[in-house]
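Before the break, one more example. Copy the sequence into your notebook; we will annotate it together after we see the structure.
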Amino acid sequence: MGSAIAYLIASKTNTKVTLYDVFPDSLTKSQATVEKYCKSSVDKGFITAEKAAEVKSLISWSDDLASAKDADLVIEAIAEDINLKHELFKKLDAICGPTAIFASNTSSLPITSLAAVTKRSKQFLGMHFFSPAHIMKLLEIIPGLDTDSATVEKIREFGQKLGKTIISSKDLPGFITTRLGMVLCNEAAFALMEGLSSPEEIDLGMTLGYNHPMGPLALADFIGLDICLHILEVLHEGFGDPKYRPCPLLRQLVSAGHLGRKTGKGFYKYEAK
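Here is what the structure looks like once it is written out:
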């Protein structure tokens, strides 16, 4: 996700971007991913070879967090683990300048809680991109309890420069998109568990009946069933409402290691590429 966000920013705004990761192997993979995005964009005629070379020259990679010290905007896109995010933002808060804006790409975790571990709650908000970030048109902005209007307006203007359509949400679990999307995926899992129909027909009901581009079970496999389970647990805990309880079938698949596309098996089976 970070690679796609970096490519998007470099290609749309001609801004220098540094990708940070604690693991060197991840940085190597990220470089290959950016190269793939550039090649694909040139092959499809979206950009010229000269533009692709310019985009690549604007992106750098680092395993040293101090590389963020002069950043105007930091977008965090690590695993959906609130403790890991807290730890990272504490470190960044001590490194970055006082005017830097912090944003989290979290799809479900509370922005106010993430901001609270820093000394810049007014300059902290959620920027929820959708995968792949350089193609999907939506950007969800989530102000925390203390986020000031100037920060929101700066990020809204920045999002527009990225070519995004922007929606905003209050800082409640799952925001708009994840809350609605995960309820649908979870209910589809319940329908499958209850023998209502096959995975294919449940998904066809939504793709052909509601014009969704992907059925909820296929979408869950694409996202990762472990990630879906985690988000549903966040929603269930955050709202205390039983309608968000994760489907037992979803829990069973995750416990078996059937996580969707990334493992070759979830609600569907996938052939190895």
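The chain is about 50% helix and 10% strand. The CA atoms of residues 7 and 37 lie 8 Å apart. Try to locate both features in your own notes.
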